[in-house]
Write a structure and sequence with these properties.
single chain; mainly alpha; MetI-like fold; 14 helices; disordered C terminus
């Protein structure tokens, strides 16, 4: 009997084989995702370091990532451009005000729609879903903005996009899944009305959903430029993205007036100015997102559950 080693049962052998297979698959998936992440990160790293690089050094080796000489000349020059500063102020205003308005409207709209007993709920949801597939078009929207007296005002960049059907459905599903009916019933027994229940009980429990809506809305308002092309003619009301578009997107046959003005003193090459402008534009969103990421993931996973 001694010296004889029994073979492990089939269940144990299968568990060992499955464990090895899972490790291999996990390693391959991690490697593929890691490579993909590096490919996505590489352009940002290149733009960031190139913005600090003198243009003469860039011409010597365009593939160099870490500059031998760091300079802030491009950042100083781009910030001296008055239209860039005004665009930054306009973008911050429409982002803060628009995001606040959007989250408020989403909350007060999604809460009643999450109640199965609401009369006409299916009809209302059908109308909301209809707007996700069909749109009035550019010309009717333009005429509507002019008719409401919003043309050439910052409110034309805030009000039309203040509520999204997609985000409304996410918020509704999150409330329906997260908030138990017994909690609201207990508050009603204590004499609380619907508004008191919403703002005193429901809203404090909606931190992940509110964080998710805040990120979606803030990114939408911060990156918006097409609406300003249609509704804004005063250059002082241009948002940052429209200023960046004029600076970066040039005609191949001629240099844009903005670039001519910025490089009139031959201080910085347009290429370096573009890199600095892109970095300044991206920094606020890149700095805010890591602090709200954990709420963002939870809000998306719960809000996307089908009713």
């Amino acid at each position: 009997m001694t010296g004889l080693k029994k073979n492990p049962p089939a269940r144990v052998r299968n568990r060992i084989i499955r464990g090895v297979g899972d490790s291999v698959v996990e390693t391959i998936c991690t490697a593929v995702v890691g490579i993909f992440a590096l490919c996505c990160l590489a352009p940002f790293v290149y733009v960031f370091f190139t913005s600090f690089m003198p243009y003469t050094e860039y011409l010597e080796n365009p593939l160099r990532i870490i500059p031998a000489t760091f300079t802030l000349q491009a950042y100083r020059q781009i910030w001296d451009y008055a239209l860039f500063r005004s665009g930054y102020a306009v973008t911050i205003f429409i982002t803060v005000v628009g995001t606040t308005l959007s989250v408020f409207l989403l909350t007060i709209s999604a809460y009643p729609l999450s109640k199965p007993g609401l009369k006409g709920r299916k009809i209302i949801m059908g109308m909301i879903l209809f707007t996700m597939f069909f749109n009035g078009g550019m010309i009717p929207n333009y005429l509507l903005i002019r008719g409401l007296g919003l043309f050439n005002t910052v409110w034309a960049l805030i009000i039309p996009g203040s509520i999204s059907a997609f985000l409304l459905i996410l918020m509704k599903n999150f409330i329906r899944i997260t908030i138990p009916e017994s909690l609201e019933e207990a508050a009603k027994v204590d004499g609380a009305n619907d508004l008191r229940i919403l703002f005193s009980i429901v809203v404090p429990l909606l931190k992940p959903a509110i964080a998710t809506m805040t990120i979606f809305s803030a990114v939408q308002y911060w990156n918006s430029y097409y609406a300003s092309m249609l509704y804004i003619s005063d250059r002082k009301l241009w948002p940052l993205m429209l200023v960046l578009r004029e600076l970066v997107v040039e005609d191949t046959s001629a240099v844009s007036p903005v670039t001519q003005m910025l490089t009139s003193a031959a201080r910085t090459h347009p290429f370096t100015l573009k890199m600095a402008a892109i970095v300044i534009t991206l920094l606020p969103i890149l700095m805010i997102y890591p602090f709200m990421q954990r709420y963002f993931v939870k809000g998306i996973s719960l809000g996307s559950v089908k009713e």
